[in-house]
Amino acid sequence: MSSSEMREPTFLVLAALADGRKHGYAVISEVSGLSSGRVTLRPGTLYAALDRLRDEGLVRPAGEEIVDGRLRRYYELTDAGAETLSTEAARLQSNADQALRKLRLRLGPAAGSGVA
């Protein structure tokens, strides 16, 4: 996957797994939190994305357990997934930095402290 093709939900799923293994519902909750509620994943959408990311070598299964009579599947980021996430985060940061720089130029020196 080219980093320029990564969609926001994919980025957020990888980011949700960056600090350790999680089960599906925890990934859904983390994605919602990371996006301040802008991105809401349905279970079917999440598991399709996890299957695709697994096929791409970016995530891997990390165990299963039964909780309250329901199967919980855990997933974790692979080293390739962490590298892909890092590359995409750097690309997004660079784009944001450039946009903010351009905004500061547009606003002029008097408004310099209003846009970080």
TrEMBL record:
InterPro entries: Metal_resp_DNA-bind_regulator (IPR052509), Tscrpt_reg_PadR_N (IPR005149), WH-like_DNA-bd_sf (IPR036388), WH_DNA-bd_sf (IPR036390). Signal peptide: none annotated. Residues 13-86 form the Transcription regulator PadR N-terminal domain. Coiled coil: none annotated. It comes from the Bacteria. PANTHER family: PADR-FAMILY TRANSCRIPTIONAL REGULATOR. This is PadR family transcriptional regulator.
